[in-house]
Amino acid sequence: MSKLLPPVLCVVGARPNFMKMAPILEAFARAEPAIPATLVHTGQHYDVAMNEQHFAALGLPKPDISLEVGSGSHAKQTAAVMEHFEPVLDEVQPAAVLVVGDVNSTLACTLVASKKGVPVIHVEAGLRSYDRTMPEEINRVLTDQIADLLFTTEAKAEDNLAREGVPAERVRFVGNVMIDSVHRNREKAVSAAQTLAALDVDPAKPWGLVTLHRPSNVDDAAVLANIVGTLNEAAERLPLVFPVHPRTRARMSHVAAPRTTYGSAGTAAPVGAVSDRESARSALQEPPEGTAPGAVSRSEAAPTGATNLHLLDPVDYLTMLGLLQSATLVITDSGGLQEETTALGIPCLTVRENTERPITIEQGTNTLVGTDRATILAAVDNILTTGGKQGRIPEYWDGQTAERIATELNRWLGRSG
Question: Where do the segments described as Disordered lie (predicted)?
Fold first, then answer.
């Protein structure tokens, strides 16, 4: 790596960024010529244990620079990242700033770089839900308008950018770098059987994986209570394993879900179901001192006598990947899981009214079910009866996206033909 070449400043701010950045940094090191990189972690996700889990699991080096911004409102967090990132640009003098995804750090670092005259590269550009109530949508739109080089995951993203007036010469269709991480880590993933054993869940029988973290689902007490009640009822059909996101953990500890399932009026919830404030708080309490991050024990997974809705602490990427590739179905509001389930051929039910990743519906295994109880349960029943939606792997979701990014970036920087 030549010291004469200024580095590309690569920014991670939230957990999904880690999975996308790991293969990119590896590809940069293998490129001809190699692309020097400096890794900056803004610290937008403030759970230190989870950050350390993800860096270790993905083989990422420790960040060269940590901003340690932490949590806060969207405005405070974005402003804090901008304030802390500016002196980094002054010190490093990079060839460009590379940002991924749609978190607050993505937009904040883009704004600072642009104002300082530093080129911006956006990985995962052009995705649109057309829902301006989503903070991520605002981050995506503004970042794409500012970025100098935009790497897209699907053809429809190129169409979105063209409609918004982004010149075609700034756009490169390279595929989905998140799927690179799936390919490179599948064999290293923690066996689902190992995780499920602590929950008394038989991996040979149907079971489902659940994640929830979107503000639209967890910030409204009534919506969250409805979803938890629906999950309790779905868990009567098959065991559900629910690694609880910190955001959801905080909200569930203050939500009293209905004490009945959403079957017929007056039908009592199963004994121990996670359907009232105290049981939710009990299930989501901090693990005992000395417990490894992501470790699963029966006492932590769910209250004594609980139904088949098994709550556990957040797990690292390799544990989640092991669960994901072995599940019968996935119920989620995560954009990344919509993509990963399509790549793995696992039926996915997305608890949202829209998605910025329509290719997972049009070509993949994803189905939008919203938050309606009957719709979710009918979709679960359909998967258990028919095996669910059959999809195909989208173009360039082949595990080689990071290599294409490195090749295109070297050309763009004038470092190769």
Answer: 252-301
